[in-house]
Amino acid sequence: ESDTASEISFQFTKHKKTPSVGSHSSDMASVSSVSGSVLSVYSGDFGSVDAQGTVEFALDYDEKNREFQVHVSQCKDLAVVDEKKSRSDPYVKTYLLPDKARMGKRKTSVKKRTVNPIYNEVLRYKIEKMVLLIQKLNLSVWHNDPLGRNSFLGEIEVDLASWDWSNRKLNWYPLKPRSLSAVNGVDHRGVMNLSIKYVPPGSLGKMCPKNPPSGEVHIWVKDVKDLLQLRPSGVDAFVKCYVLPDTSKKSYQKTRVIKRDTNPVFNHTIVYDGFHTEDLKDACVELTVWDHEKLTNHFLGGIRLGLGTGLSYGISVDWMDSTQEEVAFWQEMMLAANEWIEGLLPLRSL
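Request: output the structure for the sequence above.
Response:
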């Protein structure tokens, strides 16, 4: 049923944040990575103003330096954030999508007390032209608050594949409200096809040679479909797995890398033992998909299987944040001991 199998033993202790771990797997090599916490385009928005006004900018690609350049000229008739003081302190922020974390954001300076700011600044990205053409530019305008309670003032999104690169002139564009997909939390990163099973301690009977002395959680990662493609050659994908709250390198499991495929088939089974039934309420299986590169790996999306209560062994944790689909999948496993539960779950930012 699977081409490879990994097994790791956990001893969950309710009074410890980090349980002791003993590994029974040879596939435990450390891998370089970036944080799974991907910043939202709209992170830090504390405003409630309607988008209005226009922004003037130009786009260019410097072939010699392999550099994408966004020339931000000025904005006009922006919304007023502080009506009592008739004040807005605007700045412009850019991302390259779909992977906001990979290339990062760029920002202009802040212009204070104006709804008609003049910038004349160039925001630069070192990126190959072929890679740039599968991206979208998100350019947004924000009011800067001294306490970090920034307010969204409007945005424009440009599909760089269809951009007229002979047009290097400054042009005016109307600022728009947030896109519906962002407002509704739609963040399509692909879907994972998997099965999970819980084997309670001693549940297989004394005559069974494989009857586990402690409970086991089996995770069968079958395949992933529709991954984000960050470069023209495709995606070199692999899956990482932890059972939280343990985040030590010894607890880390991974599949092999499937090269140049946005629909990779892994067929990889991982077994975690040391589980007691009560641990299922406080533990969380985190599966994340990554694009492998020599210098650093890039996060593509993930899922977290648990009860999503926000608590683990009485401690408040941000990773106990399973979606309704993920919670239902985990609960079905808890109620059906020794049975494989199949699921198709959407990947998301973590």
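Residues 282 and 312 are 5 Å apart (CA to CA).
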